[in-house]
Recover the amino acids of this structure.
């Protein structure tokens, strides 16, 4: 396997692990038109630690970066702004015309954002010690 393939497989495993944790928590999707959006915020200290570990592994797979944007499609816009230490944010956009931002103030925040389909819009603000993940599908 090539290095890129290994990184993709590893990132998928990390995403699956985080998604598994997310699916065990009570979540209600937000539905608007043909768009479904799921958000996950860990509710227990154990779940927070699992999410931190997943974000650390994700960072390693992204060359040690604390933030990254991955886009596949046209007309996508994404941004990450971080002020503080120990923050991490990763944005994945697959499809067209997505808009996503993560604003992190203070220390020890983490967010994973996935946007699939077309025209998803998500904006996350974190202000210290907050961890979350979001998925928008079919927009």
């Amino acid at each position: 396997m090539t290095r890129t393939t290994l990184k993709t497989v590893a990132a998928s495993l990390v995403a699956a692990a985080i998604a598994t944790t997310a699916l065990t928590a009570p979540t209600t999707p937000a539905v608007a038109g043909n768009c479904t959006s799921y958000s996950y915020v860990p509710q227990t200290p154990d779940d927070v630690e699992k999410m931190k570990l997943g974000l650390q592994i994700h960072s390693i797979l992204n060359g040690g970066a604390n933030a990254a944007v991955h886009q596949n499609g046209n007309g996508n816009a994404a941004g990450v702004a971080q002020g503080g230490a120990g923050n991490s944010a990763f944005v994945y956009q697959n499809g067209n015309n997505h808009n996503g931002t993560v604003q992190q103030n203070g220390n020890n925040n983490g967010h994973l954002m996935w946007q699939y389909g077309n025209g998803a819009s998500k904006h996350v603000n974190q202000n210290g010690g907050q961890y979350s993940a979001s998925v928008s599908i079919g927009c």
User: Anything to note?
Assistant: The chain has one domain: 3-137. DSSP finds two helices and nine strands in the chain. Residues 22-26 have pLDDT under 50 and may be disordered. Strands lie at 30-32, 35-40, 67-72, 77-83, 88-96, 99-105, 110-118, 121-126, 131-137.
